Amino acid sequence: MIEALQFEFMQHALLAGLLVSFAAGIIGSLIVVNRMVFLAGGIAHTSYGGIGLAVYFGLPIFLGASFFAVGAALLIAALTMKKRHRMDTFIGLIWAVGMAIGVIFVDLTPGYNVDLMSYLFGSILAVSSEDLYFMGALLALILFVVIFWYRDILAVSYDSEYAGLRDVNVKFFYTLILILSALTVVIAIKVVGLILVIAMLTIPVYIAEKLSNSLFSMMFLSGTIATLFTLGGLWFSYTYNLTSGASIIIVSAVSLGVFLLFHRGK
Amino acid sequence: MSVIDIKDVSFAYDKQMILDNINLSVEAKDFLAIIGPNGGGKSTLLKLILGINTLKKGSISVLGKEPSKSLTQIGYVPQNTNVNTDFPIKVIEVVMMGHVGGKKPLFGYGKDEIMCAMGALAQVGMEKFSQTKIGSLSGGQRQRVMIARALCAHPQILILDEPTSSIDITGQKEIYELLKMLNESITIIVVSHDISVILEYANKAAHVNKTLSYHDISDKKQTFHTHGDDEHFCEIELLQMLGAESCNTCEPETSAKWRETK
Questions:
Q1: Which of A63, A130, A183, B10 has its CA 20 to 30 A from that of B158?
Q2: Over the stretch A135-173, which tens digit does the pLDDT of each residue have?
Q3: Cβ contacts of residue A247 below 8 Å, gap of 6+?
């Protein structure tokens, strides 16, 4: 493993792992405490539509996926604010339609034969410098939003009705959390792929939740745990020549199992 | 002096009439109990007073203003405080959510806010638990924290929706004793199913089931004889108090349930 670090792709992979893990830890915490896990899954799969469009029009993949994911997030936000009890139906719908759009556009692209698997299961070993800038910028944005509006986000997440009575703009923060989730999902697709992204957003958070007594420490701890899982997964992937995204998720899941075994009854 | 004035208010969801021509006036330092069957419109009435539901017919003034404009002077304790118990949040942070407007520091919490929140916790006897995770408290303790959160804004009116629905008997009594103490300086409105306990502490009662019937019960000790100093009113006395008609016709199910439990 150490000798691998001299390769640029490995350095990129480690840096990407670190940036994405912290973004996923922070946003995953918000997703879990706001009970939006299914919603994040919907956005992840919908963003495949953006990937298909970007491939067809020859745009940067990140750009296409981001626009599509944010669009889906705004649509879900608008729909769920009006009819919250039908949320699961809307999400399921958007989930499937987004993927279908992606598949169709990839079909339409002449001579297209890039490995689709890399979007479904991630390709952390193929992270470019531009990807890293995008990830870094997003993490900076997330940190800014979460630190600057910590109290409002905390109030909306814990008790949105009460926050509304205390003059907090609940709709604004709900939408903001969704948009940041969409962008985080997009960068996490590079690391673990859109099918596995949900595990990355929830497993570290689930462990951190049990060990934290504030939202802030939960976010920080989730980021740290996600980083450990990503590095561990990468090591497995490199040593045994396995798919990196899947290795990261399996390391996370096994660690969760061990954690629950020792934490039981506490 | 009346703090809340409700005049000719009707409210409907879609086409279903929930409240029909309600009139109610709450005096300063009243302890008002709002009772009535499920789906009778109690929560809707609360939401109108809090400005969560928008008024379509009639008028409501709270402290002389529209409900949404006097929110800062109302302390509200919502119905279900047992949701989200996994949420990683400390008691003091929950209480500080009660602060309104004003100048907030750029990051974190101001010293005065922390002082104020600790004061509110001391008022409800929970200052020891300020750094405890909210999920590890008992139902009654959590309810006290929610009352502290409401007190944080120094309200003139405290509104509680089913404050004792998930608390054991001792806890319930403690909550009502706390409210009685707070009632010395604050107007209190409690919505509850638990009518025997609430009528011991309340001085006014409003029975809401689409329409509203209002009772001044401050002189209950003279009007109704109790079985002993500490005992609750028996169901017949309660029914008498509220007018047997409204109870027999409006809530046959509830009355039947009381009989079973006795």
A1: B10
A2: 999 999 999 999 999 988 998 998 888 888 887 888 999
A3: A233, A234, A236, A237, A240
CA distance A214 to chain B (A): 4
CA distance A152 to chain B (A): 9
Chain B residues close to A204, C-beta within 8 Å: none
Report pLDDT for A1: 64
User: Which chain A residue lies closest to B76 (C-alpha atoms)?
Assistant: A162
The DSSP code for A227 is H
Length of chain A: 266
Residues of chain A with pLDDT under 50: none
Instruction: Residue window 136-155, chain A: list those with CB within 8 Å of chain B.
Output: 147-148, 150-151, 154-155
HSE-CB for B157 with a 13 A CA cutoff: 25
| R_g over Cα of chain A | 18
CA distance A216 to A204: 14
Single-letter amino acid code for the residue at B35: I
CB-based contacts of B241, cutoff 8 Å, min separation 6: B199, B205, B215, B217, B220, B223, B224, B233
- Using CB atoms, pick whichever of B90, B97, B109 lies closest to residue A166: B97
pLDDT score at A219: 95
- Interface contact flag, B78 A159, Cβ < 8 Å: yes
Question: Shortest CB distance from A155 goes to which of B71, B97, B132?
Answer: B97
Work out the widest C-alpha separation in chain A, in whole angstroms.
Answer: 58
Q: Which domains does chain B have, with CATH numbers?
A: 2-261 (3.40.50.300)
Instruction: Give the domains, in start order, of chain A with CATH numbers.
Output: 2-258 (1.10.3470.10)
B222's CB contacts (< 8 A; 6+ apart) are none
Q: What are phi and psi of B5, to 5 degrees?
A: -125, 120
